Fold each of these.
Amino acid sequence: MPLIQVNAVDESPRAVAGAAPLDEQLDAALAGSGAGAPIAVLIHGFRFSLHRRDMSPHDHILALDPTIDNWKAVSWPRALGFDGAAPSEGLCIAFGWEASGSIWSAYDEAARAGLALSRLIERIVARAPGRPVDLLGHSLGARVALTALSACPASALGHAVLMASAEFADRAEALLDTQAGRQARILNVTSRENDLYDWLLESLVAPARGGGRALGHGLDTPPANWIDLQIDHPETLDALAALGHDIAPPSRRICHWSPYVRPGMFGLYRALIRGELPFEMLRARLPNARTARWSRLLAAPRPTLPLPFARNAPS
């Protein structure tokens, strides 16, 4: 059982309709996987819905075989090595939550989904003590992951990979000052390709919900368990290549999905959660990179400027 589908409902984790009860699925999956195998929870971002099939995350990026025809429909579970080939590959959980509607309602709902996620993690830890849970979230899914830190047991989490986070730096710093936040190893994946979305978060959400600078520009003084990884920085890509991870250079000036559609990115995440690339080694080898906002958008013009916007598409 490589994949369990879970939805956040009323701040609680629930099995998807038609599936066996969640506790029953967790018992079977954890008993069938090796003691050292990873446990990963994957969390989508904005625009996905639990009530519309054409916007379901379980038919899109969280599916083993996405049925939605979209250039962003990359199977996260398969890319991370969860395909049911062997028990040693571990357990993957596709975590869905209601992220449709306005950006303000989705931002609020992400916090409630984070509480549901923390309760799911508690159930896993109760069944598999000593096996840390890794999180991988995109956009508002990163807010879901960070919110879960506030209610998780101290040693419950291993890695948290935050891709193009739709959250604020001050909120992240507060959540790092929790039992789980001080122990989790967090990879904050940023890019100047996401500057427009960071600016929109600051311009639209911050005035209504509080918050300051978007997390896409990293932390000013990151703790030892935090890495800001700017994936459109040439020296950073060189450092990753030296570690055996060739990441394709950016091809767009604006792209919210670059941290998971860019070739090579999932190989890096897979190595991290499977222990092939120690977090401390990655942190030690990376340059201190933080280029100015809008540096990609304001660079010398190219012959074409593809802008991958999709007004009603989930992200």
Note: Strands lie at 3-9, 12-15, 39-43, 91-96, 133-138, 157-163, 185-190, 226-230.
Amino acid sequence: MKDFNAVLVGVGGQGILLAAEILGTAAVKDGLNVRVSEIHGMAQRGGSVVSTLRIGENVFAPTVLEGHADLLMGFEQLETLRSLNYTSEKTMVLMGDERIPPTELAAKNAEYPSTDDILQKIRRFTQRIVIVEAAKLAEKTGSRVVQNTILVGAAAGTGKLPVKKHSITDALEELVPSKHLLLNVKAFEAGYNSVKK
């Protein structure tokens, strides 16, 4: 298997680190060599968070080089835009619909770019874009807080991940507190099916 590199980006409070941990644990369950890291950003509400996931026999370090991501998972649209340096024409960008304006936009009196503007910029790097209505799907599932699990499900639904679907659901069972498990399993399936159509 060739090395697989994923970069997960968003803001603190969106569950990015949990999403990366779920995917990393699923890879371990499949007997794969995996490295997961939180690169920078403070996992506080509103701060930029970037987590990387690398799977493959020759993976020794967790860092994904610029232009080498196979998958960019954007949990927040502006953060996705900020992280395009990881992409190339072979990268799939899987982006949720959540928009959390950073404080510096208000400070500069700047407007949050439209989704169309963001998509136009992403297309300069790659044509492989999947938009997931994670906020809408999460609300339908029962809680906005499961957008991260919806995006994990959508990533699995694309067939791009080198881990088995049941390994991801096993990882969910292991990592999500039991009182939230059913909701998260529903969210995973909702995300998976939204892309499978």
Note: The CA atoms of residues 80 and 141 lie 24 Å apart.
Amino acid sequence: MSDFNMVLAGVGGQGILLAAEAVGAAAVKDGLNVRVSEIHGMAQRGGSVVSNVRIGEGALASTVMDGDANLVLGFEPLETARNLKSASEKTVVIMNTERIPPVELAMKNRQYPALEEIVAKITVFTHKIVLIEASELAKQAGSALTLNSVLLGAAAAIDDFPVKLESMRESLRELVPQKHVDLNIRAFQLGYAFVKEKKDQQKY
């Protein structure tokens, strides 16, 4: 298989590191070579968090190079836009539409850009864009805290995702606290179904 490079971008408290760990653990279950890296911005809750996951024989280093991402999984729109250097025309961008304005905007008295502006910026790099109200789907699953599982399900639904669906579910069952497993599996399924339905309307 060709290498698969994934960038997960959002803010602290959204479960990004757990999501990256889940993909890595699932890849190991499938016998795949995998590298996972974490890049933290501001340490406190709400600061930028980016994680890179590289899967395949060529994944010797853990960092995704500029333009090499197969998938950018955006947990927050502005953080997605900040990580577009990883994208190219081959990249699928899955972006949660819920905005979490960073403290720095208020400090600099600047407005959060409109969602349309962010989408326009993404289209400079790629037209393979899926907008998902992941926070709403998480609430539908039973808890807003399952946002990361919704987005993992969305990621697992794209054509080239290299990890088996059941391996993803298994890694979630192992990593999530036992009492929250059913909620997270439900959230995962909702994200997966959302993107599968979108794929019937557009090919990417």
Note: The first strand starts at residue 4 and ends at 11.
